[in-house]
Amino acid sequence: MSHKRIWTIAKVKSGIELFKKEYGRYPVSHDFDVVTYLPSARHVQRIFGGLVELRKKIKTKSPDNFSIGLQSTHRALKIINKRNASHKAVQKELQNNLINTNIGCNIPICTGRSCINFRLSNEAQNCAVEAVYAKDDRVLIGCIDSRLKKYAGVKIEIKNIFIVATNKKLNKNNFNRISSRKSKDGKVIVHVCLLNDLLPELRKRGFN
Q1: Is 88 helix (H, G, I), strand (E, B) or coil?
Q2: Do 58 and 13 touch, CB atoms closer than 8 A?
Q3: Where are the beta strands (DSSP E) in the chain?
Q4: What Cα–Cα distance (Å) separates residue 80 from each residue in 73, 74, 77, 132?
């Protein structure tokens, strides 16, 4: 017979400190749904009034609200730096190895507010390549969704979109499952790969 766990402030604080010890940082919202020694994010919202209020009650050394102040600024800068590094790594890989392929960088689409990271074309076909840095599968899926929204209504005929994940720690065994879920009605085919696998994937499809 299972017993429903009762989450007291003391138990949650102990779990948060354990998370900090294991991961070197304090947990954010989605972390509460991953580890077993913390209540779910939904439970935190229902019982404690949300994560901001919980942090105030526990009085950790972390900021109460990670979405404002220096903590938010530092996090935003880290994301921007990783995104720029991903873009440069993919650009270098393409330009150094694809001799017979036209490579366009940051091609405006739709109203011009969005850009294709890289558009590859030869006499027979074209495709798009998007560089992303994702810390885990959850973030990767979010990156893919945002890219697919960007391509909705694009006038340029693009069937194949390659999402290049530059974080080597991701498990590429999950990529086929993610790709098949995101390829809608055969209109757009999504290929997810690590940077090391990009060139073989492109050459299989005639880009050299």
Answers
A1: helix
A2: yes
A3: 102-109, 114-121, 126-132, 160-165, 189-194
A4: 11, 10, 5, 11
Mean pLDDT of 33-46: 85
Tell me, what DSSP letter sits at residue 5?
P
**65-109 tens-digit pLDDT:** 444 444 545 655 676 778 888 889 999 999 999 988 999 888 776
| Domain tally, the chain | 2
What is the Cα–Cα distance from 110 to 114, expressed in whole angstroms? 7
Which residues lie below 8 Å from residue 144, measured CB to CB, with a gap of 6+? 132, 163, 178, 182, 190, 192
Give residue 116's identity as a one-letter amino acid code.
I
Tell me, yes or no, whether 58 and 90 share the same domain.
Answer: no
- Percent of the chain at pLDDT exceeding 90: 16
72 assigned to some structural domain: no
Q: What is the pLDDT of residues 148-170, one digit of tens each?
A: 777 776 666 777 889 999 988 88
- Token pair belonging to 147: 């890219």
Cα–Cα distance, 196 to 168 (Å, whole number): 9
Q: What is the CATH number of the domain that holds 116?
A: 3.40.1350
What pLDDT score was predicted for residue 62?
A: 58
Residues 6+ apart with CB under 8 A from 174: 137
Domain that holds residue 58: 9-67
- Looking at per-residue confidence, does 141 or 92 come out higher? 92
